[in-house]
Sequence to fold (369 residues):
Amino acid sequence: MAGKLLQLFLSFLKIGFTSFGGLSMVPLVNSEMISHGFMTQSEVMDIVAIAEMTPGPLGLNCATFAGLRAAGILGAVVSVIGVLTPSFTLAYVVGVFFEKFRKSRTVSSMMNGVRPSAIGMILGVMVSLSLSNYVGETGDISYVSILLSLLDVFLLVKLKMSIPKVIGINAVLGIILFGFLGLN
Amino acid sequence: MKMLSSLFFQFLKFGAFTFGGGWSLIAQMQKEFVEKRKLITNEELLDLTSVGRSIPGTMIGNTAMLFGYREAGFLGGLVCLVGMTLAPFLILTAVTFFYNALLGSFIMDAVMKGIRAAVVPIILSAVLGLMKSGYRYPVFIVCTVISFVLYAFFNVNCIYLVVIGMILGVLITEICERKEKANGR
Fold:
């Protein structure tokens, strides 16, 4: 058992240091889990479905689910610690230096360009999320989802409603619109 | 100590309401820390996010660490990480036991379809705030366009986008400052 936990930890340590979170982790999780015999191919495929169903960042959910399947709760704990290791080592060191130098002329010039680039990235993420959220697998567009999103924009931007409230409203409307009324 | 527990509970809540990936956690940070409590500015949040994105590991774990470190040192960062992880961890653990029942359930599908519709609006509401102050000079919109096109249409890795941003940042800032000097005095 201890050996298995150590192996899981090392696997996710490796995944943490060689990936950049989110879906980019899935291929790595795939090869690590299958090569050690921790999970089968179809279990790995389930990861994404279940990681998106529950709250939390995808990368962490992948680690939790894989760890659980491979070695129970302890497995999940060591996997999460493994995948978060870059954050409390590398990110910490970078943070120390960044706070020290962010006022310097060169770093602040660099950040002038990095900030707008980051906004471009987020806009790109929004496009890919829109494609997966509004267009079904068969290519049909979910107009009800789009209308619901427009309502959310109004609630968030105009009424300044909090994010948890909006999520709650969407869950209820989801049951009504997609569940009972069977809309698409 | 009070600082640490407030960071912990804040990130506990963020973790519980993060759907559709790390960016919706950034959106919650923007609403809470920038708009409501004015702990950091939009620019600083963008800086932390960009730095977090360029280090290996999960973007949001790195960003949480960087934010916590800034507010309360190493322990602050650690507390944010643990807080953020806890709720998703417990929920996912519980869900795994009912996994087979939930995966095909028609109510669960309907709930998730409803929640998914909120993800893009949540991120949009944060981006609108971030855009207000992300631009030192208006020309920097060029960086946004370049990185959007490369990311959305050519699938270019975010690291390269950050590096391109750095180079353009130094160049454009230099040119704009020279121009200002030439025009000013």
